[in-house]
Amino acid sequence: MWTVMQSPVGDLRIVAQDDAITRVEFSPHRRPEDGRPVGECCDDAPLLVEARAQLAAYFARELKEFTLPLAPIGTDFQQQVWAQLCKIPWGETATYGQIAHRLGRTNAASRAVGLANGRNPIPIVVPCHRVIGADGTLTGYAGGMDRKQVLLDIEADVLF
């Protein structure tokens, strides 16, 4: 089942299966590469209502840590990388090399970390946008560099 919500980074399709979020997709929404069905639109499903509410609170800077049940589909290595992404706090960043080291690997694994990061099926909630290049610059983002910048700006310390 799925629902769509508007956001500062465009429409997001949120997909759930078996009582967990499996994907958050940027528009334009495409058929899933893994061939998994997205199911029927179900705007009033409690899990999807909660996911929309938490994402809306995130975009309003009212929520810094998601508490949604997640079930991203990926290899063991991808799962390890995505788990590390969830440990990067709101408003902070990490490099691909730092993630590799946190996994007990050398800088040589940075490219593999980058590939796993790019295949994250639950962006924003699993904050792959918080990963930057070793020199501190923004590097590729599956949702596009403009979206990555918007997400990092949302998390930047701003005096109101």
Order the strands across the largest sheet as they lie in space.
Answer: 1-2-3
What is the number of domains?
Answer: 2
Average of pLDDT: 91
Question: Which stretches are low in confidence, meaning pLDDT under 50 for 5 or more residues running?
Answer: none
Element-level helix/strand string: EEEHHEHHEH
> What portion of residues is helical?
25-40%
Describe the structure in your own words.
The protein is α+β, with helices and mostly antiparallel strands. It folds into two domains: 2-59, no CATH class; 76-155, Winged helix-like DNA-binding domain superfamily/Winged helix DNA-binding domain (Arc Repressor Mutant, subunit A), CATH 1.10.10.10. The protein has helices spanning 46-59, 76-85, 96-102, 110-118, 145-155; strands at residues 2-5, 12-17, 20-26, 94-95, 131-132. It has a three-stranded antiparallel sheet with strand order 1-2-3, covered by helices on one side. A two-stranded parallel sheet has the order 4-5. Strand 1 and strand 2 form a beta hairpin. 28% of the residues are buried.
Describe how the helices and strands are arranged.
Layout: E1 2-5, E2 12-17, E3 20-26, H1 46-59, H2 76-85, E4 94-95, H3 96-102, H4 110-118, E5 131-132, H5 145-155
Parallel strand pairs: 4-5
Antiparallel strand pairs: 1-2, 2-3
Helix pairs in contact: 3-4
Brief write-up:
This protein is of the alpha+beta class and 160 residues long. The protein has helices at 46-59, 76-85, 96-102, 110-118, 145-155, and strands at 2-5, 12-17, 20-26, 94-95, 131-132.
Descriptive terms for the model:
globular; alpha+beta; 160 residues; 2 domains; single chain
